[in-house]
Amino acid sequence: LPTPPARLPYVPHVPPGALLGKVTATTFALERPRCVFDGHADASDAVWLAVAFANASGAFRNPPSRAEVPPYKQLPTARSYMTLETAAAAYSCSAPSPPVLRVGSDTACRDQGRQDPCNGPLPSPGPYRVKFLLMGCSGPKAETRWSEPILLRRALSPSTIEPAPARHGSAVVVIASILASLGAVLASAVLGALGAKVWGFLCHRDLGTDAFIRRSYRTHHIPPALPQPLRPGCGWSPPGLCHSAPQPPAPC
């Protein structure tokens, strides 16, 4: 009987820090295990990642050889597959390898009919569980624990998107009304103060003009009024004319 693989205490997990696209609708990121397989791996060994639906991980069975590795295209029926075949040396303590692995990033897998394992997009939100499996020429040599369930994001259907924004709550409407009222009061106060200043300026300007007119008004240059002539009447003669002497009667 083959020797059962060693059980390692390592638990795969999604990176805890902020990472762009850490979990999407078809992919998720995993922290790359380092120094986990040291002491169990040889130069010819490879590390695989087993991916299974969370409710099917208990039924997963390690393949006895590479030829029996479950491929990606059987995921809908077999509920599990294996991917990311990598030389064990890439997971050693001294390997300058990227700190993150991405599951489901190979979009060309869905169009290929090959039997080779590939890292294709995940077909549904899951959840999924994963584990790392160290395999040598004679079969599995060591394995990690299964991860906690990993749930992918759900893509929104266009039919579920509301054409108009949702109505705000009554509290938001009340706050908006209060702010609008305060804005109107403030605007009225500003306009009133500005109008008072303009009015005061115009009043001062008019007063200055009247004072100037009054100060420059003089009456001494107007000549005195001349006496008006009296109307003609009895015994009246024009002023300045003397009565002429009586003329002698004409000779007969």
Automatic annotation (TrEMBL):
Any single GO CC term annotated in Swiss-Prot or TrEMBL for this entry: membrane
Keyword Transmembrane helix: yes
Top-rank taxon: Eukaryota
Entry annotated with the keyword Transmembrane: yes
TM helices/strands, residue ranges: 171-196
Keywords noted in UniProt: Membrane, Transmembrane, Transmembrane helix
Protein name: UPK3B protein
